[in-house]
Amino acid sequence: VAGLGNYGLRGTRHSVGMGVLDRLARQLEVAEGWRADRRCCADVALATARGLELLLLKPRRLMNLNGLSIASAAEIYNLCPEDIYLVHDDLDKALGKVAIKLGGSARGHNGVRSCISALHSNEMTRLRVGIGRP
């Protein structure tokens, strides 16, 4: 599960994916387990939920380069694109509304575009979190 965003701009609406992962880590009681993984240039935490092993990942790069971290982690942790869930902001959804999207285009989202390019696939599942338009 990868939270897209701008690492240095946490708390902004475009980094809502990272905020969701922070909340998920607290709920799964692994919030103290975040560690920097230099191999993929990301903060990672391992968790278990309903018998599934999860790798939570927050890239330490700008949004437009998030895919490089996610592709590196996929290689390191032996994941294929279908195993990856992206959590990201969506300008076209009302604030706080969420939707799941199974694969497809980036729909203009630079972080998702970066992931599609770096993974050479668009098969990742996305949790789109509405941030509304200014």
From TrEMBL:
Instruction: Mention one GO molecular function.
Output: peptidyl-tRNA hydrolase activity
User: Which InterPro entries does this entry report, sorted A to Z?
Assistant: Pept_tRNA_hydro, Pept_tRNA_hydro_CS, Pept_tRNA_hydro_sf
Q: Which residues form a coiled coil?
A: none
Q: Which UniProt keywords apply?
A: Hydrolase, RNA-binding, tRNA-binding
List the EC numbers from the record: 3.1.1.29
For this protein, the record's PANTHER family field holds: PEPTIDYL-TRNA HYDROLASE
Q: Which family does it belong to?
A: Belongs to the PTH family.
From the Swiss-Prot or TrEMBL record, give the protein name: peptidyl-tRNA hydrolase
Organism of derivation? Thalassarche chlororhynchos
Q: Which lineage is the organism of this entry classified under, starting from the top rank? A: Eukaryota, Metazoa, Chordata, Craniata, Vertebrata
